[in-house]
Amino acid sequence: MADAELNAGLLMFIAHRSMEDRIFAELHAAGFTDITVAQGRVAQRISRDGIRLTELAEQAQITKQTAGFLVDQLERAGYAERVADPTDGRARLVRLSERGKKVAVFANSIADRIEAEWAAHLGTRRMRELRAALTALREITDPYAHPGGAAARLGSGPA
Predict the structure, then answer these.
(1) Is 151 within the bounds of a domain?
(2) Model confidence over 108-147: pLDDT tens digits?
(3) Is residue 153 part of a domain?
(4) Which residues contact 118 (CB under 8 A, 6 or more apart)?
């Protein structure tokens, strides 16, 4: 299939999948063999201060049951932990454990290196433009990109 026939979404997915595959290959080579792509996709949405399971499921666009299952796996492997929510004693937050933080730092360093390779291929200016375009596109595609989440984004857009 010619590049001109591929829609922008598929082109972005191809690049994303390539980066994801490389990150997980390097994680596994470094000994992090007990984390899966599905777990990693959920773990990426865990904020520094922690996140409630229902919000995590919503952001990852999976059911609460699936999120709970993946968090259970992350917890058993030592990548995540459940802690009391300081704002609501009845609720619990999911946050990265020390091991989870280490794997996140390592994965981010791999992603940075891949982006540097992309910049070498595209040129610094084009890479900067790509990042700016994708960041701008996030404004209309990611309801969690801004404080307030989905509810704050409904119906909002450039005036």
Answers:
(1) no
(2) 999 999 999 999 999 999 999 999 999 999 999 988 876 5
(3) no
(4) 15, 127
- Alpha-helix residue ranges (DSSP H) falling in the chain: 8-29, 37-43, 53-60, 64-76, 98-122, 124-141, 149-153
**Full domain range(s) for residue 110:** 6-35+97-141
Nearest 5°: CA angle at 116, between 42 and 112? 30
In 3D space, the residue among 13, 145, 43 whose CA is nearest the CA of residue 103 turns out to be 43
Q: What b/e sequence results for 22-41 when a residue is b if at least 16 CB atoms lie within 10 Å of its CB, and e otherwise?
A: ebbebbeeeebeebeeebbe
The whole model's pTM is what? 0.83
For 2-15, write each residue's pLDDT tens digit: 777 899 999 999 99
